[in-house]
Specification:
By secondary structure, the chain is an alpha/beta fold. Helix content is about 35%, strand content about 20%. It contains nine helices and 15 strands. The strands form four sheets. Strands 2, 3, 4, 5, 6, 7, 9 and 13 form an eight-stranded mixed sheet that branches. Strands 10-12-14 form a three-stranded mixed sheet. The longest helix is centred in the middle third of the chain and has 19 residues.
C-alpha cells in the first residue's frame, strides 16, 4: 500500500479570469486530442474560446487517430491532423503554424514492453528539437506528466521537490521528459510546464495496459453489468482526479507566469486520496450490492508498488 496526498498549491488552479476582455489572440495546438483528457480539453477550449483572457484564433487538433472536427460551430478556425509524432518530418509540418500554446498529451503506459520509450520519450524529444531548430520561436508547452514519477515509500504530503524515484517504466519516462523540458526551457528554446496528474477516473474506454487501469474498471464495468478484476486489497490507497479537474489543471498551466514557476517547471497537482474500499463503497451506495458483486478480487502483488 502507498498513499499520496499532494500539497495545496501556491497557485489557485480554480480561478478563472475576472475580466472577459480579450486582449490578444493565439494559435493553440493539442497533441493527443482524441484521448479521454484531450477530448475534454478540446471541448473546454471550444466552449471558452480563450485562455486567461487571450482569445483563440486558431486551434489545431492532432493525434495518431484522425481527429474528428467539432460538431458545434467554433468562433475560430479549427484544423485537424492525423500524425505520427515519431516521424520528424510530420512534426515539422505540424509546427509550421507556430502555435503559441502546445498541449502535449502523451501517455503510453504499457509496463509489459518498452514501447513507451519510443512513443513518450523519443517522440517528445523530436518535438523539442524541432522547436529548438526553428530559432526565434518559443511556445508555451504544457506536458501532462504523472504522479508515477514518485515511488514508494511516500510521505503523507508530497511536495513538488520530492525526489523522483519511479517504480514503473511509465513513471521513468515521465521523469525523463520533465528533465528534458526543464532543460530546453532553461536554455530558452521553449517555455515548458509539466503538470503531474493523478490517475484520472473514470475513463469511459475499455481497460488499457496501464497499471492503474483497474481504478476505472472496478466502477465502469459493474455499472455496465460486467465483471471487473480488482488486483489490490481494499486498503490500497491512490490519488485520483476527475477528467474535468485534469482539464482545469491543463488550462491553468497554459497561462502560468515565469514568476509562478520560480520553484521549478514540474508541478504536482492536487488529488483526492481514496482507498479502493472507498470507491467500491461509493459504487454500492449509488447502484446497490449487485454491481459490487461483479467485482472479482484477483490479487496481483506486482501492481501494488507501481499503480
Amino acid at each position: 500500500e502507498h498513499s499520496c496526498v499532494t500539497k495545496a498549491l501556491r497557485i489557485d488552479l480554480h480561478l478563472r479570469p475576472t475580466s472577459t476582455v480579450v486582449h490578444s489572440t493565439m494559435h493553440v495546438l493539442v497533441i493527443g486530442s482524441e484521448g479521454f483528457v484531450g477530448s475534454k480539453l478540446v471541448d473546454k477550449l471550444l466552449s471558452d474560446s480563450e485562455i486567461n483572457g487571450k482569445g483563440i484564433k486558431e486551434l489545431t487538433l492532432a493525434d495518431v487517430i484522425a481527429p474528428s472536427m467539432p460538431l458545434e460551430d467554433a468562433d475560430f478556425t479549427v484544423h485537424t491532423a492525423k500524425i505520427d509524432i515519431s516521424d520528424g518530418d510530420q512534426i515539422i509540418g505540424l509546427l509550421e503554424g507556430r502555435p503559441d500554446i502546445i498541449f502535449h498529451l502523451v501517455g503510453e503506459g504499457d509496463e509489459a514492453d518498452f514501447n513507451g520509450y519510443k512513443v513518450n520519450v523519443e517522440s517528445t524529444h523530436k518535438i523539442l528539437e524541432a522547436i529548438r531548430l526553428m530559432g526565434d520561436y518559443k511556445p508555451r508547452l504544457v506536458y501532462n506528466s504523472t504522479l508515477a514519477v514518485f515511488g514508494p515509500p511516500l510521505p503523507d504530503v508530497v511536495p513538488d521537490q520530492h525526489a523522483c524515484t519511479p517504480a514503473s517504466s511509465y513513471g521513468t519516462q515521465a521523469a525523463i521528459l520533465e528533465l528534458l523540458i526543464g532543460d530546453y526551457s532553461r536554455k530558452g528554446y521553449l517555455d515548458g510546464v509539466c503538470i503531474r496528474l493523478p490517475t484520472v477516473v473514470i475513463r469511459p474506454f475499455e481497460p488499457n495496459k496501464t497499471a492503474s487501469s483497474f481504478l476505472s474498471s472496478i466502477i465502469r464495468e459493474p455499472i455496465a453489468n460486467m465483471e471487473a478484476a480488482c488486483p489490490v486489497p481494499l486498503s490500497f490507497r491512490h490519488p485520483v482526479a476527475s477528467g474535468r479537474a485534469a482539464v482545469r489543471f491543463l488550462v491553468r498551466a497554459a497561462s502560468l507566469t515565469e514568476k509562478e514557476l520560480t520553484d521549478g517547471r514540474a508541478i504536482t497537482m492536487p488529488s483526492l486520496s481514496v482507498t479502493v474500499g472507498d470507491m467500491i463503497q461509493s459504487l454500492e451506495n449509488v447502484t446497490g450490492k449487485h454491481a459490487v458483486e461483479l467485482i472479482k478480487h484477483e490479487p496481483d502483488d506486482s501492481l501494488q508498488s507501481i499503480a
